[in-house]
C-alpha cells in the first residue's frame, strides 16, 4: 500500500475532519524533520510513514473501551501511537485525559513541541515507566517497546481496576505470549493488524500474576 492509499484509508475509516487531516499531516512533517536529528522512526521507513506508522497507530482508536477517560501511552518515543491518539481525540473525545510517558529527554522535548505547535492537550511524563507514579489509566498502549511479560508488569502498575491494554506486537507475539504465561495468567484477544500482515494487536482485559 502506498502512502497516498494509506492516508485515504485512514480518512475513510476514521471519518475525520479537514482539521484532523491537517494535524496528521503537520505531525508527519514534524516527525520527518526531527528524525533527521534524533532517532524517532527508522530512517528506512520514512518513505512509508503513513502506512507503517500512522495507519498502524490509528487502528487502536476504535478498539478503546467506550468508558475510557484516561489513556496512558507507555514509551511514546516519537509519539506513535500517543500523538496520533491525541489528534483523533481532539475531534472525537475532547475529554480524554492522555499521558505520554517517555524517559528519553530529547524525545520528550519533541513530544512537547508537537503538543505546542499542533495545539494538542496531553501530558508528557519524562520518567521511567517502572518508577513513575501510577496513572490509573482506563487504556494503556505500547508499540515496539518491550517483551510482553515486561509490558504486563508495567500495565499492572499503571492501569485502573478495569483497565484495558492495547499492545502492538510483531510476528513473535506467540513466543512472547508463551514466555509471559510463565509469570502471568493472561488470555488476550488477538486482532490482526491492518497495517502489517505479520503484526497483531493484543487487547488484554483481566490478567494477574501466576
TrEMBL record:
<dbReference type="GO" id="GO:0070043">
    <property type="term" value="F:rRNA (guanine-N7-)-methyltransferase activity"/>
</dbReference>
<feature type="binding site">
    <location>
        <position position="75"/>
    </location>
    <ligand>
        <name>S-adenosyl-L-methionine</name>
    </ligand>
</feature>
<keyword id="KW-0489">Methyltransferase</keyword>
<keyword id="KW-0963">Cytoplasm</keyword>
<dbReference type="InterPro" id="IPR003682">
    <property type="entry name" value="rRNA_ssu_MeTfrase_G"/>
</dbReference>
<dbReference type="GO" id="GO:0005829">
    <property type="term" value="C:cytosol"/>
</dbReference>
<keyword id="KW-0698">rRNA processing</keyword>
<comment type="function">
    <text>Specifically methylates the N7 position of guanine in position 527 of 16S rRNA.</text>
</comment>
<feature type="binding site">
    <location>
        <position position="143"/>
    </location>
    <ligand>
        <name>S-adenosyl-L-methionine</name>
    </ligand>
</feature>
<keyword id="KW-0949">S-adenosyl-L-methionine</keyword>
<comment type="similarity">
    <text>Belongs to the methyltransferase superfamily. RNA methyltransferase RsmG family.</text>
</comment>
<feature type="binding site">
    <location>
        <position position="80"/>
    </location>
    <ligand>
        <name>S-adenosyl-L-methionine</name>
    </ligand>
</feature>
<keyword id="KW-0808">Transferase</keyword>
<dbReference type="InterPro" id="IPR029063">
    <property type="entry name" value="SAM-dependent_MTases_sf"/>
</dbReference>
<protein>
    <recommendedName>
        <fullName>Ribosomal RNA small subunit methyltransferase G</fullName>
        <ecNumber>2.1.1.170</ecNumber>
    </recommendedName>
</protein>
<dbReference type="Pfam" id="PF02527">
    <property type="entry name" value="GidB"/>
</dbReference>
<feature type="binding site">
    <location>
        <begin position="129"/>
        <end position="130"/>
    </location>
    <ligand>
        <name>S-adenosyl-L-methionine</name>
    </ligand>
</feature>
Amino acid at each position: 500500500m502506498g502512502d497516498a492509499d494509506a492516508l485515504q484509508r485512514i480518512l475513510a475509516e476514521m471519518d475525520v475532519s479537514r482539521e484532523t487531516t491537517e494535524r496528521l499531516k503537520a505531525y508527519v512533517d514534524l516527525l520527518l524533520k526531527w528524525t533527521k536529528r534524533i532517532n524517532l522512526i527508522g530512517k528506512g521507513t520514512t518513505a512509508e510513514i503513513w502506512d507503517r506508522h500512522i495507519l498502524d497507530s490509528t487502528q487502536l482508536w476504535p478498539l478503546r473501551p467506550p468508558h475510557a477517560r484516561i489513556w496512558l501511552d507507555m514509551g511514546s518515543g516519537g509519539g506513535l501511537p500517543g500523538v496520533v491518539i491525541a489528534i483523533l481525540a481532539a475531534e472525537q473525545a475532547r475529554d480524554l485525559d492522555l499521558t505520554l510517558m517517555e524517559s528519553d529527554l530529547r524525545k520528550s522535548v519533541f513530544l512537547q513541541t508537537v503538543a505546542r505547535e499542533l495545539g494538542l492537550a496531553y501530558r508528557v511524563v519524562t520518567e521511567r515507566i517502572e518508577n513513575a507514579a501510577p496513572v490509573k489509566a482506563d487504556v494503556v498502549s505500547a508499540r515496539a517497546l518491550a517483551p510482553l511479560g515486561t509490558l504486563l508488569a508495567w500495565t499492572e502498575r499503571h492501569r485502573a481496576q478495569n483497565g484495558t491494554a492495547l499492545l502492538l506486537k510483531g510476528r513473535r507475539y506467540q513466543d512472547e505470549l508463551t514466555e509471559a504465561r510463565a509469570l502471568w495468567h493472561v488470555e488476550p484477544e488477538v486482532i490482526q493488524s491492518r497495517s502489517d500482515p505479520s503484526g497483531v494487536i493484543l487487547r488484554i482485559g483481566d490478567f494477574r500474576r501466576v
